[in-house]
Design goal:
The structure is a single chain. This protein is mainly α. Among the domains are: about 5-160, Alpha Horseshoe (Leucine-rich Repeat Variant); about 570-600 and about 610-639, no CATH class. It has helices at about 5-15, 15-30, 40-55, 60-80, 85-95, 105-120, 125-135, 140-155, 165-170, 180-190, 195-210, 215-225, 225-240, 250-265, 270, 275-290, 295-315, 320-330, 335-355, 360-365, 375-390, 395-400, 400-415, 420-435, 435-445, 450-455, 515-520, 530-535, 550-560, 575-580, 585-600, 620-635. α1 (about 5-15) packs parallel to α3. About 35% of the residues are buried. Belongs to the CLASP family. Keywords: Cell cycle, Cell division, Cytoplasm, Cytoskeleton, Microtubule, Mitosis, Repeat. InterPro entries: ARM-like, ARM-type_fold, CLASP_N_dom, HEAT_type_2, TOG. It is found in: Cytoplasm, Cytoskeleton, Spindle.
């Protein structure tokens, strides 16, 4: 028996903690030097270290754990027949140490487990123990750490078989602990990103067999798929869209529509733009036919897909914009309100993100001749999107006749037989006037006096005569990747990171949530000029919230100088402010609510100047206030 082994065994039998720790440290150095240990001494040493690992003293337990790695390597080189004894007696304790609260203890335990695997000659027993004890351990941290062990073994040992562990890893995708689920997803993506095609096919098969949630599967596949896989996906989608829609294929069509949307939101376009556009071109006819389907669920799914395609592809959707807009306009006039609204949302996203073209405006002019009041009302909203989204090209639009055609659409809307269409047209006219003041002035002077009087009554206070300094927030970008928020006023672009691989939670939606067509036709306010002045303060083209100063002509007509005056908030209740369509008004409502609550809690605090009177704006009851605040939490406005 060597001196270090004898000293360690003697110390571990005693009660002196310091001597135990010192003896194990000396033994560790001896093992690293390759000191041979007699078989009978080895048996006693394994038992003694096992008891030390279970000790309640953290210093002793940690020192015994650090000694296991050198012991395993030493025995593998000198007495391989005793490796199974080390595995059977010490592995369960090492697995438990993976769940320790201290990082350094977990790191050492992970390294010991790697040494046991790399040194073992019979891995069947070790595999069974890890699969049963680690993957099914009651501590979530152990389940998380064992995934790191698999990743480390894969990198360090080329012959490490991943197939043995695949089912256990996939099972953790549905673990009760969120951190384990996330670690499992990251592990699979890390291991299979560069794996051969056969391994990826086996992974897909296992994911289907285990009935893993679709969102999780889509995330994993979007991360590991390559361009060839994307092409294969589109080939699979092609068959159900061939021929007419039937009872047998409409369900498959809906499935592939949702799958295409998952690929889009998973970053397939930003990674493989050429292959993605080729695939979209192949199935575009099927997408258009699905928009006109009699199955409501299929139509709704397709409309959402078109909305996402416009938001993500941007100008790349231009080749399909003509046919898509014609179909969406047709669907906007149908009786089914769900289908009509979904089609309107998709059309607004398309008009906001696609490049301007005269053909699109021609379609709007044609739709203004339709007999459907519902459709004509929606077209007025579409005109607003075109004006706000493409104001940066106002000179080019005017040169090719687009501005004049928009003027004709508004003129027809201003004299429409339906009052809602007329009211919506008056609201949009003043936005048109800001971009093309000469055409707006000509239109204003060409209508009948009664119509002109109504238009001037609805004129926002911050509209100035012959305004030519109309500058959009940003110019249109043609770079590929997830779209950015470039038109705050229209609210139809995606807000997100520039990282092409980032995935929008999904979960929480970041784009196109506003229902614009209904807001264009809002009921007339008792003080429309004040309301519109407030709304225009959040415009893309007038970023400050305070209304701009009136023009000189206004000052002359009144005979006295006028200074910018903030819209009086007292004309709105807290509920009206919080539900207002203008983001600046909603922000003021939140501030007023916070001030009211703070003042209510501090009854003795004197009222500060400038704050809203509680009697004028009482705090609404919880049953009314809570739903509104929840909606504001999901508000897509950056402010």
């Amino acid at each position: 028996m060597s001196g270090a082994v004898e000293k360690a065994l003697t110390a571990l039998k005693g009660n002196n903690l310091d001597k135990k720790v010192e003896a194990i440290a000396i033994l560790e150095d001896e093992l690293l030097d390759g000191t041979y240990i007699e078989p009978q001494d080895l048996i006693h040493l394994i038992t003694a270290l096992r008891e030390a690992l279970k000790a309640s003293q953290q210093a002793l337990s940690y020192r015994a754990l650090t000694c296991l790695g050198p012991l395993t390597i030493n025995v593998a080189e000198t007495n391989q027949t005793y490796l199974n004894k080390i595995t059977s007696q010490l592995t369960p304790i090492v697995i438990d140490k993976l769940g320790d609260n201290k990082d350094k203890t977990r790191e050492v335990a992970l390294k010991v487990l790697i040494d046991m695997w790399s040194s073992g000659n019979n891995l069947t027993t070790l595999t069974k123990m890890i699969r049963e004890s680690a993957f099914g351990h009651k501590s979530w941290r152990v389940r998380e750490q064992i995934l790191q062990w698999i990743v480390a073994c894969t990198k360090m040992m080329p012959d490490f078989s991943l197939r043995v562990w695949l089912q256990s890893i996939i099972k953790l995708l549905e673990d009760s602990n969120e951190q384990v689920r996330e670690a499992s997803k990251e592990t699979i993506v890390s291991l299979f990103s560069s794996a051969p095609q056969q391994a990826k096919s086996e992974l897909r098969r296992e994911l289907r067999n285990k009935s893993i949630r679709a969102a999780t599967v889509d995330f994993i596949l979007s991360k590991i798929d390559n361009a060839r896989e994307l092409e294969r996906e589109f080939q699979i989608m092609t068959n159900p869209f061939q021929g007419k829609e039937t009872e047998q294929n409409w369900g498959e069509r809906e499935k592939h529509i949702n799958r295409l949307r998952s690929l889009l939101r998973g970053g397939a376009y930003s990674k493989f733009p050429d292959q993605f556009m080729v695939g979209v071109r192949v199935i575009m006819d099927g997408i258009i036919s699905s928009l006109c389907s009699l199955r409501t669920t299929l139509t709704l799914a397709t409309a959402v897909l078109v909305k996402d395609l416009a938001a993500y592809l941007g100008p790349a959707i231009d080749p399909f914009a003509d046919n898509l807009l014609a179909t969406l306009i047709k669907q906007a006039g149908v009786v089914k309100k769900l289908v009509a609204q979904a089609s309107v949302n998709a059309a607004e996203s398309l008009l906001a993100n696609a490049s301007y073209h005269m053909r699109l405006v021609n379609q709007l002019w044609g739709a203004m001749q339709d007999k459907s009041v519902q459709l004509r009302a929606y077209i007025i909203g579409f005109i607003k999107i075109v004006v706000n989204s493409h104001a940066a090209r106002r000179d080019a639009i005017q040169r090719n006749g687009g501005a004049q055609l928009l003027q004709n659409c508004l003129k027809k809307g201003l004299t429409d037989a339906n009052p809602k269409v007329r009211e919506g047209s008056r609201a949009v006219f003043w936005e048109f006037y800001e971009v093309w003041p000469e055409l707006g002035e000509a239109l204003l002077n060409s209508v009948e006096p009664a119509v002109k009087k109504q238009m001037e009554r609805d004129k926002p206070k911050n509209i100035t005569e012959n305004r030519r300094s109309h500058t959009p927030s940003t110019s249109r970008s043609r770079s590929r990747g997830p779209p950015s928020l470039r038109n705050k006023k229209s609210g139809y672009l995606l807000g997100g990171s520039s990282d092409s691989r980032s995935i929008d939670p999904p979960e929480t939606e970041k784009y196109i949530t506003r229902q614009p067509s209904t807001t264009y036709l809002r009921a007339k306010s008792p003080a429309p000029s004040i309301a519109r002045a407030s709304a225009s303060s959040s415009s893309t083209y007038s970023q400050p919230r305070m209304p701009s100063a009136p023009s000189k002509s206004n000052n002359i007509s009144t005979g006295k100088s006028r200074t910018p005056v903030k819209v009086p908030q007292a004309k709105y209740s807290l509920l009206q402010q919080l539900k207002h369509e203008d983001s600046a008004m909603r922000i003021d409502g939140i501030i007023n609510l916070a001030q009211s609550i703070a003042r209510k809690k501090a009854q003795s605090t004197p009222e500060k100047p400038g704050l809203q009177d509680l009697k004028k704006s009482p705090i609404p009851p919880d049953e009314e206030l809570i739903p509104i605040l929840l909606n504001l939490l999901n508000d897509n406005t950056p402010d």
